[in-house]
């Protein structure tokens, strides 16, 4: 019989136990061991570490047990200690506050927008790496005291739960999530009524959303929920599930996230007194509409569109996470236009100006499509990729937005991702660290809250990691063996449950008791299943893989997990192919596929593996943080040099799979070559090193690699390091730029840019002379100097409006300059009747080999973040350089 109404009955905690409610609703418990242990003590039978949820646990504890706990003085003492620790964590100064006290100019607050957040399995609002990264960003910001406000959507069905059919086909399930049963609090007005965010829709309709708040340590996370009574059925479903529905549905989600998210932040700050954000950080293009809402706010204060745009850009940071155009959200321009203007949202903002922000105006672009990443870049003065290699790929991919500049000069930097160690490091590893060098020092090092120097790490990485060098080999090996044994137990339990859901009877499953071996080299592979991640590369030569799995003296075992997007049948076929291989009775004790990959599974999988495998098509992995999480537990990486591994690979940390991306254009041939390289590494290097034992039965060289991974790689991969870089390199400069743009300054900057654009067609390099005897017969001596004299047409601009540069460096056979260096030229006099200005300066010839130079003109203004910001550059005509014989291609020796 179906109930006609649903509601939640909350437990009533005895007065002495009231602090448990605060502990349960602050998600710091998800990475704080002592708080987790307290809840486990409250109900040892009900606490399941893999999918722990204190809110649900308290709702299930009997009244009798609560009465026992209220009278248990030992438990109450622990409760007091943990509660006081949380209070000190929330209120005390941390790294950010220390920086402020030392005079650093930092933003009063930062709003961080993301379509998904992976904070804990108890709040399933994530699908993969983007969400996990966002969750780790919030947690690290909390540990460092960064005044961040997270903004996302509350999906009533989350992403999806994955099971397998009998024949191995992925099946999706969408359980309904009740916010009242989650660690969330409804944001309410002073009179107790729920706060509402409202968006105008075409046809006079409205989209309402409530705002739920999750508390992630010190950081509030605001989640907008459209499942409210004021909405019609269609609008109620806007936040039904993550990455679901067609284009119109996705557009509404992204409008609610961006526009509604800004309104939610304003409401939250009004109600709580939280400082208003000076910086808005867009984590991928899904939230890009937030910039339009901020423009609307400023237009209402009297600014024009152009001045408002400059103000918004100054305080905005945009992070791109995809290295392929297909991974970017794009909408039909007509669909976007229909949702804005007088019959929709932002009625005071010109629709054509909105469309222009997302139009693909570059060569190869589709003018009829609205590109969310393009809009994100145009609305942010500062942008970054998520690894050094991804930064380079992004500069190439988006170079059309900055015509005339080489990709290396495109103003997209990189901040390599990191992971939140207290979330991902196994408790056993934490206990070993605490035992060896103290709990406080271990926690400080893992959180990245303490700065110093670590050999091979970036400046500002945590100290204390070198203490691992003092841990004896036997302790490290026993720890690794214990973690592997835990994984074996977890795998058997999950595999049994999976087979039962696939329809197998208990009598068929006795073989599961022999699945995996705690003394066998264990390889992990777990991630989303788009084709470029190549889930099935390991199956390229199945017989060879079987030989590896069943080797009589050096066997390997593999644990695989991953979800394909519900609409991706190709990805589902890859899952099925892997599952069918793993179902083979000959190898099923050595290779398993675990369905429903999520945070709970990952927290067992990373520590229990000896090797973490990653074999994407290079360079399509933007960062790939799963290997970072594994490394923090002493797991070695075996990976294609893509993402972060390209940046930080050393033989001490694992093995690099050779790639054929520069030679093999045929995809099948490339897979064949790289699979062969993978098998060779496993056969000849990985397995022998694991099984090569000394007289004490210890693999000395393997243990040393584990030690070096923890000591040298560990500090680099921390989310604390990542968030500090965002603060110092992006947030602080953005806040200063935003403060500099008073309304008057914003108008002046907008007018200046308009003047530059109008004059630029008449700007150019008219004449270049090299006044020196250094060049003789097309060559010159190393260390000599060319004195350059250049005539520049400024088209009515003043010299203060531009910078004139010499660009010089080695040249290739087609006279393209590589490894370019730039040198400024200075005005040397007034202008002639044709408005040509004289510039002069020296060019030191400091490199040997084929060498060349050119001259260019860039816009220059103190409020620009880079010379390439406007995408404008003027250079010489075709004949420049021929009159002196010193053009590009000059040979120096």
TrEMBL record:
Statement: the UniProt record of this protein carries the keyword Amino-acid biosynthesis: no
Family annotation (Gene3D superfamilies): Glycogen Phosphorylase B (3.40.50.2000)
Keyword vocabulary terms for this entry: Allosteric enzyme, Carbohydrate metabolism, Glycosyltransferase, Pyridoxal phosphate, Transferase
Catalytic activity of the protein: [(1->4)-alpha-D-glucosyl](n) + phosphate = [(1->4)-alpha-D-glucosyl](n-1) + alpha-D-glucose 1-phosphate
Cofactor(s) listed: pyridoxal 5'-phosphate
Enzyme class, UniProt record, top EC level: transferase
Classification via InterPro entries: Agluc_phsphrylas, Glyco_trans_35, Glycogen/Maltodextrin_Phosph, Glycogen_phosphorylase_DUF3417, Pyridoxal_P_attach_site
EC number, as in UniProt: 2.4.1.1
Domain DUF3417: 13-123
Domain of life: Bacteria
Keyword Translocase listed: no
PROSITE patterns xref list: PHOSPHORYLASE
Family to which this protein belongs: Belongs to the glycogen phosphorylase family.
Known role: Phosphorylase is an important allosteric enzyme in carbohydrate metabolism. Enzymes from different sources differ in their regulatory mechanisms and in their natural substrates. However, all known phosphorylases share catalytic and structural properties.
Name recorded for this polypeptide: glycogen phosphorylase
């Amino acid at each position: 019989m179906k109930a006609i109404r649903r509601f939640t009955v909350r437990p009533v905690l005895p007065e002495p136990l009231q602090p448990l409610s605060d502990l349960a609703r602050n998600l710091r418990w998800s990475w704080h061991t002592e708080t987790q242990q307290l809840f486990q003590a409250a109900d040892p039978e009900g606490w399941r570490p893999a999918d722990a949820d204190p809110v649900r646990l308290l709702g299930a504890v009997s009244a009798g047990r609560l009465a026992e706990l209220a009278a248990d003085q030992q438990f109450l003492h622990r409760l007091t200690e943990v509660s006081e620790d949380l209070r000190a964590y929330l209120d005390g100064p941390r790294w950010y506050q220390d920086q402020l006290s030392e005079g650093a100019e930092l933003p009063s607050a930062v709003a961080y927008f993301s379509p998904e957040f992976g904070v804990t399995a108890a709040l399933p609002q994530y699908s993969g790496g983007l969400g996990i990264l966002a969750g780790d960003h919030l947690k690290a910001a909390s540990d460092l005291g960064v005044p961040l406000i997270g903004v996302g959507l509350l999906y009533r069905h989350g992403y999806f739960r994955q099971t397998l059919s009998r024949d191995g086909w992925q099946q999706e399930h969408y359980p309904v999530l009740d916010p009242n049963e989650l660690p969330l609090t409804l944001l309410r007005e002073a009179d107790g009524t729920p706060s509402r965010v409202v968006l105008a829709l075409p046809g006079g309709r409205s989209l309402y959303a409530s705002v739920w708040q999750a508390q992630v340590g010190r950081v509030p996370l605001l989640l907008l929920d459209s499942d409210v009574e004021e909405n019609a059925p269609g609008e109620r479903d806007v936040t039904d599930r993550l990455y679901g529905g067609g284009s119109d549905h996705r557009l509404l989600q992204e409008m609610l996230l961006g526009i509604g998210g800004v309104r939610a932040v304003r409401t939250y700050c009004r109600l709580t007194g939280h400082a208003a954000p000076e910086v808005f950080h867009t984590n991928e293009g899904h939230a890009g509409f937030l910039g339009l809402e901020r423009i609307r706010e400023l237009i209402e204060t009297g600014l024009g569109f152009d001045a408002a745009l400059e103000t918004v850009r100054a305080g905005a940071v945009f992070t791109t996470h995809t290295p392929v155009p297909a991974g970017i959200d794009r909408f039909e321009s007509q669909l976007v236009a229909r949702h804005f203007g007088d019959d929709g949202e932002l009625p005071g903002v010109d629709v054509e100006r909105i469309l222009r922000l997302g139009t693909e105006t570059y060569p190869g672009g589709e003018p009829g499509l609205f590109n969310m990443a393009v809009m994100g870049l145009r609305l942010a003065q500062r942008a970054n990729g998520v690894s050094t290699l991804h930064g380079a790929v992004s500069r190439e991919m988006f170079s059309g937005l900055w015509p005339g500049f080489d990709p290396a000069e495109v103003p997209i930097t990189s901040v390599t991702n990191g992971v939140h160690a207290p979330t991902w490091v196994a408790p056993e590893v934490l206990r070993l660290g605490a035992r060896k060098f103290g709990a406080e020092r271990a926690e400080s090092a893992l959180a990245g809250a303490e700065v110093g120097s670590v050999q091979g790490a970036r400046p500002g990485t945590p100290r204390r990691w070198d203490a691992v060098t003092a841990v004896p080999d036997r302790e490290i090996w026993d720890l690794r063996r214990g973690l592997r044994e835990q994984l074996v137990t977890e795998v058997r339990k999950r595999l049994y449950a999976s087979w039962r859901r696939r329809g197998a009877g208990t009598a068929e499953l006795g073989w599961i008791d022999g699945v995996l071996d705690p003394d066998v080299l264990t390889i992990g592979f777990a991630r989303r299943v788009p084709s470029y991640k190549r889930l099935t590369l390991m199956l390229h030569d199945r017989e060879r893989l079987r030989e590896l799995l069943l080797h009589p003296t050096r066997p390997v075992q593999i644990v695989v997990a991953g979800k394909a997007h519900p609409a991706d049948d190709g990805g589902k076929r890859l899952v099925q192919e892997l599952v069918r291989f793993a179902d083979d009775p000959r190898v099923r004790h050595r290779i398993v596929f675990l369905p429903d990959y999520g945070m709970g599974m990952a927290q067992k999988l990373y520590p229990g593996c000896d090797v973490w495998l990653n074999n994407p098509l290079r360079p399509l992995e933007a960062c790939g943080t799963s290997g970072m999480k594994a490394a923090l537990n002493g797991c070695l990486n075996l990976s294609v040099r893509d993402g972060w591994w390209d940046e930080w690979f050393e033989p001490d940390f694992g093995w690099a799979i050779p790639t054929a991306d520069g030679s093999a254009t045929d995809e099948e041939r490339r897979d064949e070559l790289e699979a062969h390289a993978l098998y060779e590494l496993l056969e000849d290097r990985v397995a022998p090193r694991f099984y090569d034992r000394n007289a004490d039965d210890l693999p000395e060289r393997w243990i040393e690699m584990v030690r070096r991974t923890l000591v040298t790689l560990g500090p680099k991969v921390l989310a604390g390091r990542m968030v500090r870089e965002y603060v110092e390199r992006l947030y602080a400069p953005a806040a200063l730029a935003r403060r500099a743009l008073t309304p008057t300054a914003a108008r002046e900057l907008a007018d200046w840019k308009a003047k530059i654009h109008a004059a630029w067609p008449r700007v150019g390099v008219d004449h270049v002379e090299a006044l020196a005897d250094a060049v003789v017969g097309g060559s010159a001596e190393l260390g000599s100097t060319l004195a350059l004299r250049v005539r520049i047409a400024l088209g009515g601009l003043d010299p203060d409006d531009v910078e004139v540069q010499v660009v010089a460096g080695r040249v290739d056979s087609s006279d393209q300059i590589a490894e370019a260096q730039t040198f400024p030229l200075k005005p040397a006099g007034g202008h002639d009747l044709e408005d040509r200005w004289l510039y002069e300066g020296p060019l030191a010839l400091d490199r040997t080999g084929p060498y060349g130079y050119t001259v260019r003109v860039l816009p220059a203004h103190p409020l620009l973040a880079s010379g390439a910001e406007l995408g404008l550059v003027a250079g010489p005509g075709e004949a420049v350089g021929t009159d002196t014989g010193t053009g590009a291609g000059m040979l120096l020796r």
